[in-house]
Amino acid sequence: MKPLRSLPRRTKILLAALAVLALLLLLRPGKDRVEVQVQQPVRADLVETIPASGVIRPVVEVKITPDVSGEIVEIFAKEGDRVEAGDLILRIRQDLYLSQVDQASASLGTLRAQLARQRAEVRQARINHERNEKLFELNAISTAELQQTKTELEIAQSSLQAAEYAVRSGEAQLKEARENLLKTTVYAPMSGIISRMDVEKGERVVGTTQMSGTELFRIADFSRMEVAVEVGESDIVRIEPGDSVRVEIDAYPRRRFAGTVVQIANSAKVANFGVRIELLPDSVRFLPGMSAAVSIVTQRRDSCLTLPVEAVFTRDKETCVWVVEAGDAVRLRQVLTGIQERDRIEIRAGLAQTERVVVGPADILAQRLTDGQKVRLSGKRKTHE
């Protein structure tokens, strides 16, 4: 390479100009600045919701089990039938219970006869004792003879009392036998739809006097339906009875239904709390077992100041955003947030609507920016849709 002093003057001037140009490019403001996207806070209506999923079921569904055991001999309704309160649904074989009624009736007749005989003995014992009392007053009998008739009267009265107890017991047994006979016919306790029939003719069932009993069928009121969901312990404290609910049902895509929270469980099952949501009446037919996704509305804010969720982050346990000030320098700003939707969050304090807030890129927001750092604004600003 030739020494610089040996180069032609024109070449020296060209090299000097290139060096100056390179220096200017290196010193050009913003070359080393991080490019960010900004947005001003916008006013919008926010609705905070808690999502959950569950299945549809009737608000009122009664499980019917028999009070007595035996073989089913007749069934008068099937699953899906509408029945009215008092309708006969099925009958259990009555032979055994008819026999028990006959036995209890015969036993009661014997006890009543014994009671009548005992009453007669009491009357006779009283007559004997009263006669002896008169004879004793006349000194016609001894004290021992008077005492004997008194004792006989007391024994007869005790026997009468026992006979009366036996008759009452026999009457109770007969009543129970008759009630068991009546229980062999099972009637609908309410009006509704037979939502489930679990037995068939000829099947033997167990009454509730033995363990839990065999479930026969269920009757449900399909005019009132609910969704049963489970909510985690961190969200359950924000839900109250009466909260409105948006419901989406897989069987009816692209439709949204309304509901209301009617009950919240007082205790958790594996850290989840049960919530019952009653569906408001609609023209469509809700069936038990349908899958449903719900959004429980916990809070609403109208025309509140909002930012995209990704613009807000936590630093040193404080909720913060990056604000672009004059000269394109970013400043860390603490803000007070409120309710949150899926992609936007309420800013309750700490920002003016006219300020510019860094909203992206996500990897730069919390990691690469420092307080007072100069930034370059992206040509494309994010806007709230």
How far is the first residue's CA from the last residue's CA? 62 Å
CATH classification class of the largest domain: Mainly Beta
Order of helices and strands: HEEEEEEHHEEEEEHEEEEEEEEEEHE
Structural class: alpha+beta
Overall radius of gyration: 45 Å
* Major sheet characteristics: 6 strands, mixed
Count of separate structural domains = 4
Helix tally equals: 5
Overall average residue pLDDT? 88
* Strand tally: 22
Give the uncertain stretches in residue-range form. Answer: 22-31
> Beta-strand percentage?
35-45%
Helix content: 25-40%
The global form is: elongated
Which fold name is given in CATH as the topology of the largest domain?
Answer: conserved putative lor/sdh protein from methanococcus maripaludis s2 fold
CATH architecture annotation name of the largest domain: Beta Barrel
